[in-house]
Amino acid sequence: MKKYIILAISAVCVCSLGVILLSTSESTLEERKNPKVLAMTISVEIPDEVSFAGEKLKLDRYDLHERFDREINSFAYLHSTTLLLIKRANRIFPIIDPILKENGIPEDFKYLAVIESSLDPRAVSSAKASGLWQLMPATGTQFGLEVTSEVDERYSIEKSTLAACKYLNSAYRKYGNWSSVAMSYNAGMGRISGELDKQQAEDSLDLWLVEETSRYYFRMLAIKCIFENPYKYGYVISAEHLYKPIKFKSVDVSESIPDLASFAKDNGITYAQLKDFNSWLRDRKLTITAKKPSTYTILIPDSESLYYKRGEKVKVYDKKWITE
After folding, report:
1. Residue 59 in contact with residue 48, Cβ under 8 Å?
2. Of the candidates 114, 60, 106, which has an alpha carbon nearest to the alpha carbon of residue 84?
3. What ranges do the domains of the chain cover?
4. Do 90 and 243 contact (CB within 8 A), yes or no?
5. Helices marked H in 176-298
6. Residue 14 — very low, low, confident or very high, per pLDDT cuts 50/70/90?
7. How far apart are CA 91 and CA 242, in angstroms?
8. DSSP states of 87-113 as a string?
9. DSSP class of residue 315?
10. What is the pLDDT of residue 88?
11. Rounded (10°) angle between helices 189-198 and 157-175
């Protein structure tokens, strides 16, 4: 009799354990599908510290705490904008990440491109800064880009990323810390160096600067936090919602193209698609002369990449972005 009682108790325990494990698994899944930030009345919790490019920053000092608080709440509740940034990142990050790595730039600097251009390679500011990294014409040419009326490589994702790496490495050699490098990207090295001297400060985060620069570094910290835990901040995303990476065929061109619309048609795409993926082409033609011989690489999108298919598995850059 005792034997049967023991067996019965054991069976109940096993079943109870199974229920607990199942409920825990379901609870975790439910948590991911039901974000913690549910209403406009809930303020986002501020962590004790954050990190960027391997550098930790404690947020216990009033000004650092409040600067981060402003940006994390702004991005958390800019729903349509922040959602669009995550979707675009799935296409852009796989292109720029390897370039950053090859040039010794911390991976976190991809978030600089997020706040600079909203990951739009065609972006242009009121000050005429252009492209993914919002480079000014003089900065672009300084770091090896061609900037003319026909060809403006600030709009090339790959080449502008390489130019940005050159700037960032130059700034790091000057300052020795990545927070100052990031802030100098917005204000310029001359301004940051000058203010460090005038204000007798050692850390650029202690400087009294114009509002845009003062907020700049904390905007990167905030968007990084949201990208690393989107569901926590109210963003529930499936893989199919992300913008899928586009596959390309590279065409090397060393002779003039008098009509880019005809060139596009000959390559099986529209003129709009040609311009969309080769925004560095700034005119309707591409001129190459004997005095200035050049070879340009034009990207032709794969026809299948241009269409979304129901049930298609979109390649996901970061599994933390999706709920599955």
Report:
1. yes
2. 114
3. 1-33, 49-241, 248-307
4. yes
5. 178-187, 189-198, 211-228, 260-266, 271-277
6. very low
7. 8
8. HHHHHHHHHHHHHHHHTT--GGGHHHH
9. P
10. 97
11. 20
Distance CA 6, CA 64 (A): 61
CATH tag for 49-241 (out of 3.40.50.300, 1.10.10.10, 3.30.1460.10, 1.10.530.10) = 1.10.530.10
CB atoms within 10 A of CB 300: 19
pTM (two decimals): 0.86
Residue 129: is its pLDDT beyond 80? yes
Q: What is the pLDDT of residues 151-208, one digit of tens each?
A: 999 999 999 999 999 999 999 999 999 999 999 999 999 999 999 999 999 999 999 9
- Give yes or no for residue 19 having a pLDDT over 70: no
End-to-end CA distance of the chain: 48
Can you read off the two tokens belonging to residue 190?
Answer: 């001359």
Question: Can you point out the beta strands (E) in the chain?
Answer: 49-52, 55-58, 248-253, 296-301
Q: At what angle do helices 110-117 and 79-102 cross, to 10 degrees?
A: 140
**DSSP bridge partners of 296:** 253
Question: In DSSP terms, which residues pair with 49 in a beta bridge?
Answer: 58
Residue with tokens 């981060």: 68
Task: Give the whole-angstrom CA distance, residue 140 versus residue 146.
Answer: 7
Other Cβ atoms within 10 Å of 234 Cβ, number = 20
